[in-house]
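Example S7 (structure tokens).
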């Protein structure tokens, strides 16, 4: 892995984000990195708490540019731990939980973080 991300690099990601970025030095990192299956104990380089699809796209681009693995956390209920990773970027979709129902078309649209 490429090592620890520098503050300037993290700031590049954070600029223009409507969500938040949580790293190992942040007070809520331990809570933010946790998943439902407590047997899974991974330590991501960063956790991006996306508020929009633009935040998701920005996080994916950032991870690719840094050569980091990506894990996407919808409901954080992956038994095998696929919603987190070591040294990578976790994209947390929990805030993308809107549900819209189109009664006429008989369709529902649910955000990636909907439980």
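Recovered sequence:
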């Amino acid at each position: 892995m490429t090592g620890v991300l520098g503050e300037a690099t993290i700031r590049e990601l954070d600029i223009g984000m409507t969500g938040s970025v949580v790293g190992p030095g942040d007070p809520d990192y331990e809570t933010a990195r946790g998943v439902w299956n407590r047997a899974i104990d991974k330590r991501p380089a960063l956790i991006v708490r996306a508020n929009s699809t633009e935040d998701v796209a920005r996080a994916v681009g950032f991870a690719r540019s840094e050569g980091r693995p990506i894990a996407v956390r919808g409901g954080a209920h992956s038994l095998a731990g696929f919603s987190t990773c070591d040294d990578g970027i976790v994209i947390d979709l929990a805030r993308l939980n809107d549900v819209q129902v189109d009664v006429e078309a008989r369709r529902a649209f649910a955000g990636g973080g909907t439980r």
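Notes on this example. The mean pLDDT is 89.
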